[in-house]
Design a protein that fits this description.
The strands form three sheets. Strands 1-2-10-7-12-5-4-3 form an eight-stranded mixed β-sheet. Strands 6-11-8-9 form a four-stranded antiparallel β-sheet, with no helix packed on it. The longest helix has 26 residues. Helix 1 links the parallel strand 1 and strand 2. With 318 residues, the chain is of the alpha+beta class. The structure holds 2-oxoglutaric acid (AKG) and fe (ii) ion. Fe (ii) ion binds next to loops. The site of fe (ii) ion has 4 residues, from loops. InterPro entries: DIOX_N, IPNS-like_FE2OG_OXY, IPNS-like_sf, Oxoglu/Fe-dep_dioxygenase_dom.
Length: 318
C-alpha cells in the first residue's frame, strides 16, 4: 500500500508574541528548512480580507470582454487571462489556468502618476479603496515580519527600516483566480507552474481552497510535492530569491505551484522588493571563512534587470 502523504506542519509565527526572540527563532527555523511559514495576529483585519476576496470574485466573474478592457499595460498593471503565460514543462499542456490582476501603489498622494488600471467606478464603487487599503495593510504586516527576520539573522530589529529597503519599496498586489472547471487528473494541467518568487518576501492569502504545494528539494528526482494546508486567519509567508541571495542561501526560496482541484480557487499574493537604489551584499551574519559570500554586491535595479523585471516593475514609480 502506498504511504499516506506526510502532513506538512509549517511553523506558525505569532506576530503579536511578547517573546520576540522566540518568534525570531521560529522564523529562522522556518526559513532555513522550508522557506515558508504562517503568520497569525498579522494586523490585517479579517473584514478587510473578506472584502478583498469579494471584490476580486466580482471582478473575475465578469465576461472576458470586460476583463480584457483592463488588459495588463506596459507598466505591468491590470488583467492577464488564463493560459496567457505559456511554459514548456509539459508539451501538450495548455499552460497555466490562472487569471490574475496586478495592482501597485497608486502613485503619489494625489494619485498623480498612477499607472494602475481600475474597474469602472459605477460597477465597482469600493474596489480601488479596498485594494489600496489592503496594499497599505499588507506592507505594514510585511515590515513587522521583516523586523523579526532581521532579529532571526542576528541583525538589529530595525535593520530593514534604516538601511534604505523601504525608501521606495516595490510592493505589488496580485489577485489570482484558478477556474474550477478542471481537475488534477486532466493531463499536464496546472493552475500555476512550479516557480520560486523573485523578490524579498511574499505574503499570501487564500480562500481556503487547497491546491498550493511546495517542493523542498528542487534537485531531487522525482520531485516530492507537499500540500500547504490552510490555517484560518493566517497569512502564508514565503522567502523570495532576492532574500535567499542576500542571506547567502542561509534562507531558502522554495519552489511552489498550484494544482487544480476541480473547484474555483481565489488567492491574493503581495510581493515585496526593496527600493531600486539599494545595493545589497551577502549579510555578514550569513558568511564565515568556511562559508564565504556566494554572490557579489548588486543594486536592486540591476537585479531586477537581470531577472527581466525592470520594465515589469517600472522602477521608481511603484
Ligand atoms: O495562488 C497561490 O496560492 C500561489 C500564488 C503564487 O505562488 C504567486 O502568485 O507567486
Ligand atoms: Fe509564488
Amino acid at each position: 500500500m502506498a504511504a499516506a502523504p506526510r502532513r506538512l506542519d509549517l511553523p506558525v509565527v505569532d506576530l503579536a508574541s511578547p517573546d520576540r526572540r522566540a518568534a525570531a527563532r521560529s522564523i529562522r527555523q522556518a526559513c532555513v528548512e522550508y522557506g515558508f511559514f504562517y503568520v497569525i495576529n498579522h494586523g490585517v483585519d479579517r473584514g478587510l480580507l473578506e472584502r478583498v476576496f469579494a471584490e476580486s470574485r466580482s471582478f473575475f466573474q465578469q465576461p472576458m470582454e470586460a476583463k480584457m478592457a483592463l488588459r495588463k499595460n506596459s507598466s505591468h498593471r491590470g488583467y492577464t487571462a488564463p493560459y496567457s503565460e505559456k511554459f514548456d514543462d509539459h508539451p501538450g499542456s495548455r499552460g497555466e489556468s490562472k487569471e490574475t490582476f496586478y495592482i501597485g501603489p497608486a502613485g503619489d498622494v494625489d494619485s498623480h502618476n498612477d499607472v494602475n488600471q481600475w474597474p469602472p467606478e459605477e460597477c465597482f464603487p469600493s474596489w480601488k479603496r479596498i485594494m489600496m487599503s489592503y496594499h497599505t495593510n499588507a506592507l505594514a504586516a510585511g515590515k513587522r515580519i521583516l523586523s523579526l527576520i532581521a532579529l532571526s539573522l542576528d541583525l538589529d530589529a530595525e535593520f530593514f527600516q534604516t538601511n534604505g529597503t523601504f525608501e521606495i519599496p516595490i510592493a505589488v498586489l496580485r489577485l489570482l483566480h484558478y477556474p474550477g472547471d478542471m481537475s488534477a487528473s486532466d493531463d499536464g494541467n496546472i493552475g500555476a507552474a512550479a516557480h520560486s518568487d523573485f523578490g524579498m518576501l511574499t505574503l499570501l492569502a487564500t480562500d481556503g481552497t487547497p491546491g498550493l504545494q511546495i517542493c523542498r528539494e528542487k534537485d531531487r528526482h522525482p520531485q516530492l510535492w507537499e500540500d500547504v494546508h490552510h490555517i484560518d486567519g493566517s497569512l502564508i509567508v514565503n522567502i523570495g530569491d532576492l532574500l535567499e541571495r542576500w542571506t547567502n542561501c542561509v534562507f531558502r526560496s522554495t519552489l511552489h505551484r498550484v494544482v487544480p482541484v476541480g473547484k474555483n480557487r481565489y488567492s491574493v499574493a503581495f510581493f515585496i522588493y526593496p527600493s531600486p537604489n539599494l545595493v545589497i551584499q551577502c549579510m555578514e551574519s550569513c558568511c564565515s571563512e568556511a562559508y564565504p559570500p556566494r554572490f557579489p554586491p548588486i543594486k536592486i535595479s540591476d537585479y531586477l534587470e537581470e531577472r527581466g523585471l525592470s520594465s515589469t516593475y517600472k522602477l521608481g514609480t511603484v
